Amino acid sequence: MELTCSGSAQFSEAGWKDVQKRLGVPRKRLYVIDLRQESHGFLNGAAISWYAQTNWGGAGLSDEQALMLEALRLTILEHSERIQLGRVEDVKRGTPRLFTEWPRHTVVSEERLLDLPKGHYIRLPVTDHTRPSDAAVERFIRLIRELPPQVHLHFHCRGGKGRTSTFLALYDMLRHADRLSYDALLERQRQWNDYDLRKTADPASPKAPFIQERTQFLENFYRYARDNPGGAPASWLQWLTSQGHPKG
């Protein structure tokens, strides 16, 4: 029941080299699944991101809109000689912004930085603290169906917790839901990543209704994966229709 996958928070250029060293997986067998909807990239090898409150700067955008916005922002940086960088903590706390000025040497997207074989970098944009859209789930299942044997999947989001844990759990469910219980699979995920997808949010938090939706989604996906090991024969959307569930 071993899974050839891993997960992490966002890495820098040096951090990515360390990830590759730790994994010890040849590039031709390595796939990276970037789950971040929010705009991000690399400045002089450092990971940078456009952060809004609750990390919802891209909420409501289509995948195409989110990626176009990111490309535009990186292009603007490429044509800037000096760049002001702030701190996520100031946005979270609502405190006055403190900026550091960086000279611009290199600006690249994650896909360019990783320089993996064509098709080995997959962007599945998911809004932070929310469940993935049904379209993203459908794309993910199609990817899993079409993967060649003996590959390694590396998932990441911003902090390496919610979105990364969710997709590691989905992958585990597709492989093992016909043999392991829902709780056993999510407990395994908690032990791997020290993040419990079953935990409820503070009712006062703006994240609370979205965390509840994510829990309901995971329960439904477990039932789907139990009925369709490896994502077959039915697709996610076909299964939702057969069960009378609304699509989202």
UniProtKB/TrEMBL annotation:
Stored SUPFAM superfamilies: (Phosphotyrosine protein) phosphatases II (SSF52799)
Short name of one Pfam family: PTPlike_phytase
Superkingdom assignment: Bacteria
Residue ranges annotated for the Tyrosine specific protein phosphatases domain, each copy included: 138-191
Name of protein: Protein-tyrosine phosphatase 2
